[in-house]
Amino acid sequence: MTISRIIDDNTVAAAKNLIEASSNVVITCHKTPDGDALGSSLGLAAVLTATGRHVTVITPDTPPKNLMFLPGADRVLIASRFTDKAKSILADADLLFCLDYNSLMRIDRLQPLVEQCHAPRIMIDHHLDPEPIADVMVSYPKESSTCMVLYRLLMQMGWADRINSDAAACIYTGMLTDTGNFSYNSNNPDIYLVIANLLSTGINKDDIYNKVWNTNSANRLRICGYSLYRKMQLFPDHSLALITLSREELNEFDYVKGDTESLVNRPLSIPGIVWSVYLREDEPGFVKVSTRSTGSFPVNTFCERLFGGGGHINAAGGEFHGSLSDAIATVLNAAPDYDPYLTSNT
Ligand code: 5GP
Ligand code: MN
What we know:
Structural class: alpha/beta
Bound molecules: guanosine-5'-monophosphate, manganese (II) ion
């Protein structure tokens, strides 16, 4: 079996031309970077750096601690902390990558900086309904991760053998995290052909698994335990689970970003629960919404309609400006509207 070539030749040629002409590259990814956002950014950075280019990865905000093992993570420029530096580096860039996001809204305070940057742009992404924000759009929503799209692009450019072990570790991490350790969106045989190639660079996938999933702080374990024991509400009539955490509760556990990563997935393991909503009161008057589902239940349309967000059919998010109790009411009032999706789900 060989990996299929799904990226059209014109797109590959256009991306390759821009890359070959570049010497000062900036790579950006979405806010609250996850394994796929950071993995694709650092994976591409490793490949381009090895070809002698000057490369800076700029994230809108601080990456989570459990991803700091990724090669190059310590050199990421965090725009919210070093805004002026990010501005000047973007001003000097001759090529800008937009990785793992489909709209400039997703890069938060980095948006005005990117808008002022006049370098040509290449998008590499797998989110639905991409906005035309780049000169070359390598956008494949059917792909399970941006890392997978990145691998395909490098392969079709004839650059697969430039993926060294640092790049491979990053790319593998994104493939792993965006499929929940290959437990969803993961039936495409190409995924495993890519993994075989990445392993041949010498990476240790078991070690990566442990670093990504099996590394917890005591606080993280406690807040997850508390959330499941005390804060998970089930609404069997709507096949819905709801977890909410107030600012006060987050403070009680010295919450740091990432502590409740993947918590929203847990209720889906209960038979009969088809969708799960997690509301986190990040600041008084601001609630982050995170949702997951199984089968054909579209949490992305739910998040779009009610929380100005979006995402994938089974994993989406959004934001709520208001009190936590109003956010809860918004979810529960809307839940009956989504009952029709349950019948097609069983
Ligand atoms: P998470 O629940 O892990 O924060 O996000 C899951 C997915 O939902 C992300 O990969 C992203 O596609 C989408 N998502 C999360 N938050 C937002 C948001 O505020 N706006 C939009 N458009 N998508 C989001
Ligand atoms: Mn992704």
